[in-house]
Amino acid sequence: MLMKAWNNGRFLPNGCGYGVEVSEQFRDEYLRVDWPSIFLHLDGVEEPVELAINNSVFWNRGRELRSGKIGKWLIQNGCASWDLNDPPELYVTPMERNHFGVSLSQ
Q1: Contact 17/71 with Cβ under 8 angstroms?
Q2: Which residue of 17, 28, 62, 83 lies most exposed, with the fewest beta carbons within 10 A?
Q3: What is the 3-state secondary structure (H, E, C) of 18-72?
Q4: Which 3 state secondary structure label does DSSP give 101?
Q5: Which element (helix H / strand E) includes 73?
Q6: How many angstroms separate the CA atoms of 104 and 23, rounded?
Q7: Model pLDDT for residues 24-38, shown as the tens digit of each residue
């Protein structure tokens, strides 16, 4: 299953302005509205990234989850910038409950 890398268009070297874009299909199939957050276990990073999903914007309008930690991970893995219409694909593996493994390759 896939998510896509997301950026607000600035591509800052400190990782701010980055995140992941969640498809409606992924959201509806794998996430639960009663979870306050999800945890992404980024490949090669020891601590998971916690992302809040307990807001109406995420469930009704927005599909991006933002984190400077995700930005730093993308930058360290050669994805510092991209054509805004062609973001890197992220491969997501469900782990347990609200935890998901994320990598740049299958």
Answers
A1: yes
A2: 83
A3: EEEECCHHHHHHHCCCCCCEEEEEECCCCCCEEEECCCHHHHHCCCEEECHHHHH
A4: strand
A5: helix 68-76
A6: 17
A7: 889 999 999 999 999
